[in-house]
Amino acid sequence: MIQVDQLIKTYDDLSRGRFVAVDQVSFSVGKGEIFGLLGPNGAGKTTVLRILSTVLAPSGGHASVAGYDVVKDPASVRRNIGFVSNNTAIYDRMTAWELVSYFGRLHGMPRKQLDTRLDLLFDQLRMNEFRDVPGGKMSTGMKQKVSIARAMVHDPPVLIFDEATLGLDVLVARNLLEVIRALRESGKCLIFSTHIMSEVQRLCDRIAIMHQGRILDIGTLKELQQRHEEDEFEELFFGLLSRFEDGQEGNWNEKVEFQPQIPDDGGASS
Amino acid sequence: MSDQASRVHRPKPESDKPRFSAIVLIYMREMRDQLRDRRTLFTIALLPIMLYPLVGTLLLQIAQFTRQHTTTVCIVGAEHIQDGPPLLKGIGFSDDYADSSSNLKLVLRGPDDLLENETVAGATTRWIQEGTFDAVVVFPPGFATPGSMPGSGVATVQVLYNVASDESQIALNRVTGILNDWKADWVGKSLQASGIDMAMLEPFQMEDFDVAPERTREAAFWSKMLPFIMLVWAMTGAFYPAIDLVAGEKERGTLETLLCSPALRSEIVWGKLGAVASFSMLTAVLNAGSMLVTSTFVFQQIGLGGGATVGAPPLIPMLWLFVALIPLSCLFSALALAVAAMARSSKEGQYYLMPLMMVTLPLVLLPMLPGMSLSPGTSLIPVTGMFLLVRSLVEGQYGDALMHLPFVFGVTAGCLWLAVTWAKRQFENEAVLFGGQDQWELGLWVKHLWRDRQPVATTAQAYACGAIILVALFFGKLAATSALGDLAGLTKMIVSQQLGLILAPALLMSVMLTTSIRSSLRLRWPHWLSMPMAIGLGITLHPLYLALGEWIEYTYPVSEDAMQAMLPFVEQIATLPWISVVFLMAFIPAVCEELAFRGFIFGGLVRQGGRLRAVVVTALLFGISHGFLQQSIAASCMGVLLGWIALRTGSVLPCMLIHFTNNALSVSISRLARSDLPGVELLFTRTQAGPVYQPLWFLLSIGFAMTFLFYFASLRSPVDESNPPELEPAADSSSMNSPTATA
Q1: CB-defined contacts A:B, below 8 A
Q2: Smallest CA–CA separation between A114 and chain B, in Å?
Q3: In this complex, is the C-beta atom of B16 within 8 Å of any C-beta atom belonging to chain A?
Q4: Average pLDDT in chain B
Q5: Domain final residue, candidates B154, B173, B197
Q6: Residue contact B260–A9, C-beta within 8 A
Q7: Residues contacting residue B743 through CB under 8 Å, at least 6 positions apart
């Protein structure tokens, strides 16, 4: 469903000059899979996901979502994804119902179908008690639920959650993770980015560890543990990061004994 | 690589056409959102409804105050009045001259009221300055019938007042009126006494009639005032919603939500533009309406209505205003939207209001100038033309309006298209939409300029270069007012202007800020054939260029003063050796101006797919650099052609040749016509104003020029300057913005 190949994104920055935010990132995600993007702040996770949501254009490389190229056919890509990020806020002066309905109509959903879908979503996410509350008066948890409903309103095959648990209390965060698991059960293709290791451990089928714009390693939790001979995930993560930083003077790819693997699971066809 | 670079540069214009339903959906949402905002409602609706009645009330109060205010006048030396009809009655003016009901208080002062060692002049001045009296009238000693004064002089009555005080000025007017009446009475009585018939003093009476139809008379004031008010409000009314809908949404994070929805960028722009334009119109209409109602009421109260020029506004003709309001509101809205897109927050957006106002306000103020009326010239000025058109419509001059309608319509539509295109571009530019909050520091910035040099100027550098050249030229022209005289003076002037003020900035920037002088100045070899073709185009287009110049001078006549100022210059050129004139007036400008405008600046502007921008902006800069209006217009037209050639050939060299040929022909046409070269009489005829091209050659040359133009149209630039392969695309995003890469 998602194919990312040698993706590059550079910016001009006053203090750093040409700054590579995303450096030759490649991965793919299939149906019914939760792909975890783990990395510290500033690793380039949001940039990768913004490129996937066609909000940013890549400087190099290719990416496709549900078979549509993000550069050549951005409109079709956007029709096939739901994007939840801590940067995608909701309107203050719109009620929960109005907002989700508005985005459903932007997707061109017929009125009747939209109403059934909204009823279903509001039930599923338990949003009925605040369906007429304007965004400005909602709590962070309510807002996040509205964002999720907004992203799911057109029932997209691909869903991207970028730091979606940021600022949520344990209860709501747990709830969100359950929603995501349920989405996997229904065969969706999911990307979940975070800097919280426990969430990745609990939720993700495969994990990519990102740092300074690069993917340091990709694999299932087991594969990673075996490859780096480290059972403790946190130790594994920090070890990987510090080894990368130590090796920065030389060439990283030569220093480590493996190339990040790009598993081909054939999920790219849609 | 080149394929990749061109592809990733900007998201390809989305193949899907904007859906009308989506635009309506976005429009409705934005409207509802704004209507739910208390601040917007206050500024858009409540403020105008409240503001004008409040101001009106205030005006009425002030009017009452001035009427109720008692004017105190002091008379010094009243005892000196010996002759004439009685001016005073008790401690007031005589009823014959002053209305007893008027609030005029009279105080008589004599020598006893002076301080010790104080003169009358000193005391009276002090009284006025201290505000004891509003005016002081001083009758000199021995004030009497003319002739009775010593030395046969006429007595002078001094009226002292203070120009800085309104009360004092009113007092002056009243006192002068009273004294004049008194004087006239006195004269009449004296004449009567000497047996002269009073009727002889007035051989005729005078009465003036205003033949303008009543509608024009009433409209005269309002057709100036109301459009002004409406346009200013249309601007303000567009700006605040635009900031909220773009910068505000950026700040609140809802813009990204919308951008990753299936709505196309174009749909978002059209929807938002519609909402902004609606609010702009609403604000203008509400303000104008509220002002109309209030002012009608106030004028009635003050009593200015009736026959005065400022009557109650004629309502029906004012409906024409709405016809103009729609396109102008859309224009302002598109501008505001594009400008607001640059701001990262509402607060930053507020800072952009002033520059935007500074650019558009002169266009709104221009029609208010006395003597401005609809003409082919003024109808081509954006906004101003529309304003004047509406004025003719309001005043009922439909024929005049209809004649200029195509011009006004064309210019307005063109501006609207440019503004909307700009707004759309802004929404496709990720540096604009996701600009981060980098710390700006001079040292860092200088380092960045040096470190991140590229083969070609950046867009910002190109704009900066244009601005530097224009400012330098402005001051340069101030400095070199009359440095002419002889060949040396002329040489000095042209060389210093061309090399020092036009070429030097471009060359310096090219050396210091880019890695390749050759490519930043666009010194590439085009196809060899394009060089002779350029010369051919220069020659064959010259008759048309001259015709254009004549048309411009006919439409915007050159003032006598300017003609006089130009005369020594023109005479000088006629006497100088031909070779040096061609060198100074054709060769040097062609090289310097082309390197700067079609070289450095064009190269920077053509990037990021800015082909149109490069052609239009360089043409405008090139035009403005020519100093006075008539030349500027011709040069701008020429600039468009040169820019197009520059785009087609990818080089500055053909432009230089066209520019050189054109200038050389202009300065040597009279010499050519006088020479005995074969075939001269086929090309030129002589008229009183000098040699002109033969009509036949004029037509033929246009045909040839078309052929040359077709040749250039068939060319493709050897390098894709719009998406240069050697540059990575992210490099051309505005240097100070980098999307925040948090992950």
Answers
A1: 158
A2: 15
A3: yes
A4: 80
A5: B197
A6: no
A7: A37, A39, A41, A42, A43, A44, A45, A46, A47, A48, A49, A162, A163, A193, A210
Q: Where are the domains of chain A?
A: 2-255
Selected for mutation to probe chain A from B7, B250, B257, B440 (highest A CB count within 10 Å) is B257
- Residue A7 confidence class, pLDDT cut points 50, 70, 90: very high
Q: B339 and B398 share a domain?
A: yes
Helix (H) or strand (E) holding B365: helix B353-365
Contact criterion met (CB < 8 Å) for B29 and A11 = no
CB A55 within 8 A of CB B268: no
B-interface mutation test, from A18, A53, A88, A196, most B Cβ less than 10 A away: A88
The contacts of residue B419 (CB under 8 Å, 6+ apart) are B331, B334, B335, B338
Write out the E strands in chain A: 2-13, 17-29, 33-38, 60-65, 68-69, 81-85, 158-162, 189-194, 206-211, 214-219
Say if residue B602 is in the same domain as residue B544. Answer: yes
pLDDT of residue B222: 72
**Measured between CA atoms, how close is A49 to chain B, in angstroms?**
9
State ipTM. 0.87
Q: Is the same domain home to B283 and B161?
A: no
What residues make up the domain containing B79? 69-197
Distance from CA of B253 to the nearest CA of A (A): 5
Torsion over CA: B367, B371, B373, B378 (sign): negative
Least confident of A110-124, B376-390, B444-458: B444-458
Contact A57 B440 (CB under 8 A): no
Residues B585 and B640 in one domain: yes
CB contact (8 A) between residue A75 and residue B16: yes
CATH architecture of A2-255: 3-Layer(aba) Sandwich (3.40)
Residue in B4, B12, B261 nearest the CB of A72: B12
Query: What are the Cα distances from residue A153, in Å, to A148, A156, B586?
Result: 8, 8, 67
How far is Cα B402 from Cα B636, in angstroms, rounded to an integer? 28
List of chain A residues whose C-beta atoms are within 8 Å of the C-beta of residue B25:
102, 105-106
Task: Classify strands B104-109 and B71-76 as parallel, antiparallel or unpaired.
Answer: parallel
Among B7, B22, B743, beta carbon nearest to A106: B22
Count the domains in chain B: 3
- Residue A237: helix, strand or coil by DSSP? helix
Mean pLDDT for A136-161 is 91
Using DSSP, how many helices (H) and how many strands (E) does chain B show? 32, 8
**Tell me, what's the pLDDT at A262?**
45
Same domain, B600 and B574: yes
Q: Are B545 and B662 in contact (CB under 8 A)?
A: yes
Same domain, yes or no: B254 and B303: yes
Contact A18, A24 (CB under 8 A): no
CA distance A99 to chain B (A): 10
Q: Would B428 be classed as within a structural domain?
A: yes
Chain B interface, best mutation among A49, A70, A106, A195, by max B CB count within 10 A: A106
| Set of chain B residues whose Cβ sits within 8 Å of the Cβ of A210 | 743
B8 and chain A in contact, CB less than 8 A: yes
B340/B273 same-domain check: yes
Q: Is the same domain home to B289 and B146?
A: no
Q: Is residue B11 a part of any domain in this protein?
A: no
The structure tokens listed for B310 are 């400022």
pLDDT, tens only, A165-213: 887 888 888 888 888 899 899 999 999 998 888 888 888 999 999 998 9
Determine the pLDDT at residue B734. 38
List the single residue in A47, A88, A91 with the smallest CB-CB distance to B256.
A88
Chain A CB within 8 Å of residue B12 CB:
yes
Please check whether residue B449 lies inside any domain of the structure: no
pLDDT digits (tens, 9 = 90+) for B328-356: 899 999 999 988 888 888 888 888 888 88
Is the CB of residue B10 less than 8 Å away from at least one CB of chain A? Answer: yes
Q: Which two tokens stand for residue B704?
A: 């040839």
